[in-house]
Amino acid sequence: MTDLIERYTVESLLPVDLGARVIRQRLTSAGVHWHDYYELCLVLSGTAEHVLNGEPLTIGAGSAFLLSPADLHELRVLGPEPLDCYNTVIEPALMERQLAALGPASVHGFPWRADDFGGAGPDLRRLRAECEEPRLGSSLLVEALVAGLVVELARRCDVGSGPRVRRPAGEDQLRDAVLFVDRHFREPITLADVAARAHLSANYFSERFRQFTGTPFQLYLQERRLRFARSLLAASALSVSEVCHASGFNSLSHFGRAYRRRYGAAPSAGHESMKM
């Protein structure tokens, strides 16, 4: 049911196997959409209202945001000037290598936003040129440029600003499991599915997942679906039934009960709740 809103994919936007692509765009609007990749955008000029997961804020020259596949957004240009921007498509595997290097705090910090990222323009121009005319070593250089951009934006967003701690054994599998849930929560995934990807028994994985996230697996999965549903209700005209299925729920009654427990109101009130 997520085809009821615009969806962009890695396959349609990354024709060359480099892991990233920079697109220079001059936008007059961009309707509600989501994507199965990470998106890094830097505004060069113009002003727009950026509605991110149902919450509006104004962006302009120097504004940047990095979105995960769990985010949805739209852009409403303000004034006569188009929004001139670099829009970077980043393949999940490439991005998640950078998140792994930054540590577990980076997994839970999306979306990232900053208003002072204009200095990244030269790196994005170089990344664009490398992607458009790949040469010897381009894949290495592309990953290095993406890594630098991600680190600089993470610093501006205070991602992982707490003290560094020694990473316990098995953390990589758990981090990958969380990222898998964050990218696939709209699908009918189960604890057993994700435990198998982490090469752990279901019982052991369930306990380690709770320790890693502070939340039991089923509750974490439901929370991701509810957050996405709330954003869809606020940002689109989809019906409650359409939002239910687009968010990964297969029962309208279960969705209604879970939504009321979480937000204190029926989903039908969601179209207005985040606009007040």
TrEMBL record:
Gene3D superfamilies: Homeodomain-like (1.10.10.60), Jelly Rolls (2.60.120.10). It holds the Pfam family HTH_18. InterPro entries: AraC-bd, AraC_XylS_family_regulators, Homeodomain-like_sf, HTH-like, HTH_AraC, HTH_AraC-typ_CS, RmlC-like_jellyroll. The keyword Repressor does not apply. Transmembrane segments: none annotated. Residues 175-273 form the HTH araC/xylS-type domain. Keywords: Activator, DNA-binding, Transcription, Transcription regulation. This is HTH araC/xylS-type domain-containing protein. It comes from Jiangella anatolica.
